Predict the structure.
Amino acid sequence: MVTRTNAAEPLVGLTVGVTAARRRDELVALLERRGAKVVGTATLSIIPLREDHVLRLATERCLVEPLDYVVATTGVGWRGWMNAAEGWGRSAELRRACEAATVISRGPKATGAVRASGLRETYSPGSEANDELLHWLLARDLRGRRIALQEHGAPLQGFASILRERGAEVIELPVYRWGPPEDPLAVRRLVDQVTRHELHALTFTSAPAIGAFLQAADELGRHEEVLTALRTSVLPVCIGGICAKPLTDEGVDAVWPERGRLGSLVRTVTETLPGRVRRELDTGTDRLILQGSAVLVQGGVISLSPVSAAVLRALAERPGWVLSRAELLRRVWRDASADEHAVEAAVARLRTSLGPHKGLIKTVTKRGYRLAVAG
């Protein structure tokens, strides 16, 4: 059946996985607005700030004695810290403590949050690299200095330990600490979908989310299968280079936008993914485009089932060549109980779905099937 589509839906027919916990609904809406089918689940949970006794105790430590340096690493983390302190009735004291200290911030988002709270930063590097903040601090005498280090999601253990080696007292403020996923079974299902190559892209908005996903795969004994999928058919798209590091460390080539924004992440998916998966099919009278689980025709789209799409993709890899039923069975079906009758039934359903274009699938007697393409 042909349904209408337009150029505003460049991801139609494509399945994109989402692992974000924070701003998940916004990311899903942006992808769906572009025609993608979105699946997945948060691989981590966020511990609510007001319930986080660790953050509150660390904040109290900041107020016991004067601070020398305050490090803001993320905009959302800084705002969260200030808002949490307000909820505890300690915002005025915390602001005064930061005003008396030297504030440094990592990148424009952290700087904007610092300024929005009524403070000014003394230093902010041009990049968003933590290393530049660290180098700036190490150029100073840190013996006996008290440093408040605002973290976001995961501890900056190497950062803090180096400062302590230089004699500083470091107070780590774990804003938005990550916890285990709310639905571990859903994370396992996502691992399964990736290993079965059912996704066309998988998005990540934090390095800890990648770590949690890979850990879930490891616990299932499917770590290498996941890496193989991410290196081949499933495109990993990250919010930035720092986020992507757990993947690049594993030899996976992820992509990310220049600016670490959700809109930029979705734009990267939209600009990168279709070119990887599209197949143009010229029947001589029509030009069709196979994209994921859809066939794009003039003025509309034919939606296919996952099996039908997989059969058509297999035939489209070498248009005009004959694929035997046994070969199609090997490429498409993972169910050991499936036989060549399943292939015949799937081809019949594919032809029905293609409607007026069903002649694209030709039967070659006693040999198998091929795509009837021009040239």
